[in-house]
Amino acid sequence: MKRTLGSTSPRLRPRVWLGIAAFLAYLAVFYAIWIVNGLDYTRVGESEQTLLRWYVAPLAGGLVVVLIAVSLFGWWRPTLRDQRPLSRSAVVLPAVMAMVAIVNMFFGDHSTVTPTMWLYLVVGSVLVGFNEEVIARGQLLVALRARFGETGVWFISTLLFSLLHLPNAFFGLGSVAILQVVIQFGLGSVYYLARRYSGSLVPAMILHGLWDFSTFSSNVPYAGMAAPFIGIAAVIVVLVLLRRDRRRGVSRTTASSRITMS
């Protein structure tokens, strides 16, 4: 089922394979830099050198792919804007997630964080918010909406986003990466709610960057403890709101048909 993308026409017609190709290209560059730099995921926030090589560098390489792909497709407008706002209740979980991230940072021990480390944390967090939201919840949504209904769009894009973290199993996390994938599916659903509520991808970028900044800069477990519960709630809320939105769409279509016939 095709969706209207907006008043400006994209350079390339949105197709699922284009969105997935851009997603895979991003992953290829990102993980190639990790491999070359010898990543140990459990030590990313350990020092200035680890943050630069394992956080900033791969994200900077991924940024190049994002900019080239979305510009080549001509999808910037529908990638960054969403004209299908959900219920106001969609803002609750993104707000809760932001508060948890802030609390996590506030109570953390930052005594070992140097000014240069703070700089790398800020740059890396901005990049991760921009890159992963544009590639997974931006251009990928544009591509998937060319073929699937919104429930399928949410599920497939969020699943791919969560699977993005599976290779972490080979970079020091081991089997824990499977749990990370499950949790990221839930957190990805929160970012989806942030986009759909606001009508813009920017709040999802900010929330994503804030969350990663909090977890990498702090040694307290509040964010990790809350993440599964936030994620489960988000999946439930997304399903409920999408079902309600679909019913409203059917009702509007039925009402419009009756007006036309009368």
Automatic annotation (TrEMBL):
Residues 116-213 form the CAAX prenyl protease 2/Lysostaphin resistance protein A-like domain. One of its GO terms (biological process) is CAAX-box protein maturation. InterPro entries: Rce1/LyrA-like_dom. This is CPBP family intramembrane metalloprotease. The chain crosses the membrane at residues 16-34, 54-76, 88-107, 113-130, 142-164, 222-242. GO terms for molecular function: endopeptidase activity; metallopeptidase activity. It comes from the Bacteria. Keywords: Hydrolase, Membrane, Metalloprotease, Protease, Transmembrane, Transmembrane helix. Pfam families: Rce1-like (PF02517).
